[in-house]
Specification:
The protein has 270 residues and is of the alpha+beta class. The chain has a single domain, classed as Ribosomal Protein S5, domain 2. It is 27% helix and 33% strand. The strands form 3 sheets. Strands 1, 2, 3, 4, 5 and 6 form a 6-stranded mixed beta sheet that branches. Helix 2 crosses helix 3.
């Protein structure tokens, strides 16, 4: 596909007419949507997600550490995101920038606030020893909509993760061997980002559309439609009615993505 010259006015006018640069419907995701798990033997869980030309990797690592003082009977989670320069010419090497920090926070919040992982079951010895789960997100190609791709990759990596072999007495971990024990997942939050451009809503924004939207809303929800996190972006305000409409779109598209996740993970297990 030839590189398009960004023209915000053109994108805005097309949106007003319920059209998009690439010919998609306003509420249509790019193709293909592919999810592959167990792509790294050095991670306890891993996944590669592709939405259109956007590609991200997610890896899960587990470690044994002392629980936090305010939650002595729980393990913990942490999400990091790295935007590789090879994935977008606008990214530079070095400490995480604002976009990487926001990507990590949005992904983290959807998992953490939904109580997706039973953190109490990660505790081996209250106040002394518990499992901590770290999720690393890496971009391979940023062609837009990193939020949805990253939350999907993080969930797929968590679902595929298995505990490493550990000595319960010393806490020594053999990362070269994995057990058959999976993470205690209680919920499976899926994130969907809805953008507002010139009064209309669309999902799965391309890189060009991300530079032209007025506002966006990223919504994380579980399979029962319970919302765990909402993150607004963009300078334009949103009315209560618009927020409600965007949430409805996000919940509907979350069902769509969850079906694909289930189908793709089923293929990977065969």
């Amino acid at each position: 596909m030839p590189k398009m010259i960004l023209n915000k006015e053109t994108i805005a006018q097309l949106s007003k007419e319920n059209q998009r640069l690439d010919g998609r419907g306003m509420l249509e995701y790019r193709e293909p949507i592919q999810i592959e798990t167990n792509i790294s033997w050095t991670a306890e869980g891993s996944a590669r997600v592709q939405i259109g030309e956007t590609v991200v990797l997610a890896g899960v690592k587990m470690s044994l550490d002392k629980p936090y003082n305010d939650t002595p009977d729980e393990g913990g989670i942490m999400v990091n995101a790295e935007l590789l320069p090879l994935s977008n010419p606008d990214y530079e090497p070095g400490p995480p920038g604002i976009k990487a920090v926001e990507l990590a926070r949005v992904t983290d919040r959807g998992i953490r606030e939904s109580k997706a992982i039973d953190l109490k079951k990660l505790c081996l010895q209250p106040g002394e020893k518990a499992w901590f789960v770290t999720i690393d997100i890496i971009t391979l190609n940023d062609a837009g909509n990193l939020f949805d791709a990253s939350t999907l990759a993080a969930l797929a990596a968590l679902k595929s993760a298995r505990f490493p072999v550990a000595d319960p007495a010393t806490g020594a971990i053999d990362y070269r061997q994995k057990t058959e024990e999976r993470l205690p997942l209680l919920k499976e939050p899926v994130g969907v980002t809805v953008c507002k451009i010139n009064g209309n809503f669309l999902v799965d924004p391309s890189s060009e559309e991300e530079q032209a939207y007025d506002a966006r809303l990223s919504v994380a929800s579980d399979d029962k439609g319970a919302i765990s996190a909402i993150q607004k972006g963009g300078d334009a305000p949103l009315s209560i009615e618009e927020v409600s409409q965007m949430i409805d779109i996000a919940l509907d598209k979350a069902k769509f993505l969850r079906k694909i996740l289930s189908k793709e993970l089923g293929k990977n297990q065969k």
